[in-house]
Write a structure and sequence with these properties.
This protein is of the alpha+beta class. It contains three helices and three strands. Strands 1-2-3 form a three-stranded antiparallel beta sheet. The relative contact order is 0.28.
C-alpha cells in the first residue's frame, strides 16, 4: 500500500494537540492592520482550537498527525 500524502497547506496551518484536537492561528492579522484597533490585534495573536465539526476534515488532510 502506498503512503498517503499530507495536504501541505493544512500541514503548515494546523498542529495536533495532546488530547487529539488541532490548534490553529487566528485569521485577520496579515494586512490592512491600520484600521484595526490595538485591542483587536492583541486578541488575534493567540492560537485557537479547530471547531469540532471541522476536525474530521483536518484529520483527513493530515493522515499522519
Amino acid at each position: 500500500m502506498p503512503k498517503l500524502k499530507s495536504n501541505r497547506g493544512a500541514a503548515k496551518r494546523f498542529r495536533r494537540t495532546g488530547k487529539g484536537g488541532f490548534k490553529r492561528a487566528q485569521s485577520h492579522l496579515n494586512h490592512i492592520l491600520t484600521k484595526k484597533s490595538p485591542k483587536r490585534k492583541r486578541k488575534l495573536r493567540g492560537t485557537a482550537q479547530v471547531a469540532e465539526c471541522d476536525v474530521k476534515g483536518v484529520r483527513r488532510m493530515l493522515p499522519y498527525s
